[in-house]
Write a structure and sequence with these properties.
about 140 residues, alpha+beta, five-stranded mixed β-sheet, 4 helices, about 35% helix
Length: about 140
Amino acid sequence: MAIDIPQSIKDSLRKFRFARRDAGSAAIVIKINKAKLIMEEVEQFDDISIEDLAEELPENSPRYVVLSYELHHNDGRKSFPLVLLNWAPTTSEIGLITLHASALLNFQNTADVSKVIELREGPEGLTKEVVDTALLGK
């Protein structure tokens, strides 16, 4: 059962990926419409903290979140890597989780993001430390 990724989502992802950023983190949130078996854009956030983003995401429903993250390196440099947050709380409906998991790789390829952070614990699991550790490998 393939999940369709409409052209509008591809365009949004492309625009998001190539946006120039010099401060703050930004995110685009995508969900699967289970009835129509297509992906839909939920919302975009500009200059949002990781903790605020965690509060915006649903506690019982999976989402794909492409995050442009303001990363501070040990040598003082700043970069804005793209990372895919695979938001899949364990409290989500099992059918949705299964659909979400089956479409992850296709979405990851479409979004052209190599790094994936798996998030199962809901808002408590998404912190700046979690993202920093995943990206800096501390």
